[in-house]
């Protein structure tokens, strides 16, 4: 009889302990951030000028794919870029970084580019840091918005958006 009582007591204790353990630690997910460890989100506004040079003696954008179709939108045409980023609109103004990546004509109906780029900065407090851009660039729109999907250095875990405006454009037939 003593063994039956011991078994019953053991089962009761095990059941209560399990229920207690599940009650404390059985949550699928929970937020346990102390208010003191939360950081204020930092907002950075940058203004620089992007120079995409596709022809001449020293192009900064090289065509790497050209499809045989003769569509007006250049659909499928793809460029690899290493474009200067400058402080002012003139290409000879102070260099603050490079735009490095790929853009491709991704629309069959208008001039819509797929932009996949890193803007790598080489000046001031942003030296050695980069932001990563991914998005659609509707070239003929007055203002275009693209996503900032990440970064490195001071921009680690960056998120947000970039606005692009064309200052001037010289048309080159691809």
What does this structure look like?
The chain has a domain at 49-165: AOC barrel-like, CATH 2.40.480. It contains one helix and eight strands; from the N terminus they run αββββββββ. With 174 residues, it is mainly beta. Strands 1, 2, 3, 4, 5, 6, 7 and 8 form an eight-stranded antiparallel β-sheet that branches.
Map the helices and strands.
Layout lengths: L1 H24 L23 E2 L10 E5 L12 E9 L8 E11 L6 E10 L8 E9 L4 E10 L7 E6 L9
Antiparallel strand pairs: 1-3, 2-3, 3-4, 4-5, 5-6, 6-7, 7-8
Features:
8 strands, 8-stranded antiparallel sheet, 36% strand, AOC barrel-like, 174 residues
Task: Quickly describe the structure.
With 174 residues, the chain is mainly beta. The protein has a domain at 49-165: AOC barrel-like. It has one helix at 2-25, and strands at residues 49-50, 61-65, 78-86, 95-105, 112-121, 130-138, 143-152, 160-165.
Detail the poorly predicted runs. Answer: 22-26
Oligomer: single chain
Largest sheet: 8 strands, antiparallel
CATH architecture descriptor name of the domain at 49-165: Beta Barrel
Helix-strand pattern, N to C? HEEEEEEEE
**Number of helices, counting only DSSP H or I runs of 4 residues or more:** 1
Q: Estimate the global geometry from the Cα principal axes.
A: extended
CATH superfamily of the domain at 49-165: Allene oxide cyclase-like
Instruction: Kindly identify the CATH topology of the domain at 49-165.
Output: AOC barrel-like
Q: How many E-type strands?
A: 8
CATH first level of the domain at 49-165: Mainly Beta
Helical percent range?
10-25%
Protein name: Dirigent protein
Keywords: Apoplast, Secreted, Signal
Organism: Gossypium tomentosum
Signal peptide: 1-26
